[in-house]
Amino acid sequence: MRKGKDSGPRLRVDPIACEGHGLCIEAFPEMVGRDPWGYPVLPADAIPPHLMRHAQRAVAVCPVLALRLTKT
Amino acid sequence: MSTAHRLTATGPSYADLAVHLRCHGPLPAADPAWIIEVVDRSGLTGRGGAAFPTGRKLRAVAGGSRRSGAPVVVANGCEGEPASSKDRTLLLKAPHLILDGIALAARAVGAQDMRLCVHEDQTDVIRTLRQALGERRAAGAPGADVEIVTVPDRYVASEESALVQLLNGGPALPLATPPRPFEKGVRGRPTLIDNVETLAHLALAVRHGADWFRSAGTPDAPGTALVTLGGAVAVPGVYEVELGLSGAELLAVAGGPVEPLRAVLCGGYFGAWLRSDRFAPARISARGLQNAGAAMGAGVFLALPATSCGLAETARVARYLAAQSAGQCGPCLNGLPALADALTGLAMRGDRKAATTIASLAPYVAGRGACRHPDGAVRLVTSALSEFGDDLRLHTSRGPCAGLRRAPILPVPAASSRVPERV
Fold first, then answer.
1. Across the A/B interface, how many CB contacts are shorter than 8 Å?
2. 0.90 cut: is pTM over it?
3. How high is the ipTM of this complex?
4. Is B374 touching A (CB cutoff 8 A)?
5. Nearest Cα to B156, choosing from B270, B300, B326, B323?
6. Chain B residues 328-367 with a CB less than 8 Å from chain A
7. What CATH number was assigned to the domain covering residues A10-70?
8. How many domains does chain B have?
């Protein structure tokens, strides 16, 4: 569930900060899934360039700043 | 190959400083690079559960000091596993070996600040440590200035990032990582956190050398380990064994099974079940048990009789683990009770959907917390389903089994302590 092979930017969540508001799931449904309790399930793979805008949007809408994009 | 006496060489009662020195000899005047080198070559791995190479950890902490100041050494003697008592036994019988290890590890990484963490309710351990530190002060021995830190008695409170947060003045709750403690831990310093048994082994490896250390155990699992053997064995207790012995030999160390066995829980409540026919030939080491589909963990082995219900036993522990969640991460807070409910439904009522429910929830729980607590709980629950397949079919076709009438084998603390509110 966690490890994808290719390098590139990835979404990371701070599981303690995340409260399951789910806005990231609404903002980026192409790659962010929902678990049975409403918490985001992040993609293992790097974000492809054509979806970067969506990933950035998902980070921006998190009300508790639990989501971020990492370089590698 | 069965029992060994390295950490247990001073015998079954408290070894004061004089007895300790007579048995093991004085601390060698080793320089930092040499200590790291010997520990590296000895192949010593962490005995707290993760089995990480101790030499590599020393090197990482020592290397980090250039960036963020003098490191801190933390010895973890909390032993969160309810079924384990090996750390407690070592702390009570051979505290000087642990204090030697702390002093040597501190020298290796260049630390002045040394802490030894124990659970606050273990007053006899705290008393023993005070006595040992007093003996060291009187003799001018190194490690006399180790600070004893008491930790709330809760499963995840002794997880290493939780210890760091506690030592930094916060609640004993796991932190989101990175940074890992070896990069940035207590007071923002690189922090070496090692289990007390690991440090005791380190003290002997540095005294006697890497070749001596490797003269017990096997090439890929060198040395000895303390194990807690319990359940349906003749003489339950803590033993020191050479790594690499077989499961059958391990049970023989505790006098063997007292009745036919169904399975053995390996590695404690973070571990996994192995059916007795698969446990008997398995090699007792981190790698050996991993190859068999289980885990060494902190060296807990609990033998389950053939007439017990493995599903009911596991459901009770799953319920306990759910209550022990720090409640910080959604998947753990929600997922562990859901898994425990499903397993309880299977064990008590023969719920036919339970196995499917567990299989579908498990991937949403494992690997999704800040700490490894949910991963351990998932491993235990899923191993019960795979190892107790016969029970599963019996329960779903004919309802709860006769094993439910037996007294439980796995110890679960009666009242789980409350989780503090987040600050």
1. 45
2. yes
3. 0.90
4. no
5. B326
6. 328-331, 334-335, 338, 361, 363-364, 366-367
7. 3.30.70.20
8. 3
